[in-house]
Amino acid sequence: MFIIDELWILFSKAVNEGRNTQDIIKIIKHYLKNISNEPRMIIKLISNNDNFISDQILLAFLHLIEFEISEEDGEKAFKLFSVAAENNNIIAQYFLGECYYYGYGTTRNQELAINWYLKAGVAIGD
């Protein structure tokens, strides 16, 4: 579980610093490359232990990374972010907005993206 804990710390730090989704993807991929792990392996580890909301969000984000390879992963990310967002998790609300904005695992919908960004407390500019 050490890798998962490190990933969560790295992920949450990047989120708290206000990094955009693409930057966070690069940070996580770089970390995984340095420890010689693929997102698939970590997905399997977390899937067996997704008792905590942080595990579910990290699992969703890893599926988002794998979305570049498989549409199914985008759909899984969208579903996991949706559940956590509906349970008022601010990080999940932001990334659900990203899913709607970019069409990760769902149809692009800027109106829904903005609604989720606002629920997450993200300032929307003109």
UniProtKB/TrEMBL annotation:
Gene3D superfamilies: Tetratricopeptide repeat domain. InterPro entries: Sel1-like, TPR-like_helical_dom_sf. Pfam families: Sel1. This is 19286_t:CDS:1. It comes from Dentiscutata erythropus.
